[in-house]
Amino acid sequence: MNRGMVLGAVAGLLLAGCSGGSGSAKPSHASAPTAVALPASGCPSGVVPAGFALDAAHSGALQPADYSESGDVQAAMIYDDYQGGYRTVYTDLKPGTAAVALVVECVALQFSTPANASRFVAAFTALRQDAGSLARQVTPSTKIGTTTLEYEETGQGFAGYGITSTDVVEMAAVDGDHFDTVSVAGPNPPAALAVSLLEGVVNNT
What we know:
Blueprint: E1 53-54, E2 60-62, H1 64-67, H2 71-79, E3 82-92, E4 102-111, H3 114-119, H4 121-130, E5 135-138, E6 147-158, E7 163-175, E8 178-185, H5 191-204
Antiparallel strand pairs: 1-3, 2-3, 3-4, 4-8, 5-6, 6-7, 7-8
């Protein structure tokens, strides 16, 4: 699941021409800290509802290629002086029952400065704009961090889970030098769950 949650799993959404916030100038590393405490988790377990199980196989530390299949997003992460990050995936699949199947992904990305974290927003939003009707930006119900984004997405597939097309609520927030995202996927994914999870990620980083 290479960014196999939101948009990375949608065929044809890899950007070919998005600048992703990067430019011709060289990235600035002058203000980068000498020692960085990188995120060690995405969703802290305490904010994940009962019934969800950790998917350890799809959780772990992130290199740019692990976060997104888009070459432009990977380039933007490098340009914006990405330091490191972590993805945590939880599932509530309930196989063999008629219960709602949900997949949750929490990602914490750390950049060298707040300015670089804010600049990465351009690459994040450009990929979703390129998705057209598959990703619709909506007004966030709750402000989290200094910048909050929210999307409603359709047609998402999840290899390995037997999910070929489902809906997703995705939220993202910039908080200092961190860019954090949460995706909740499944039939009628609850936006309130995305809010509580994103608040947990932000408070944990």
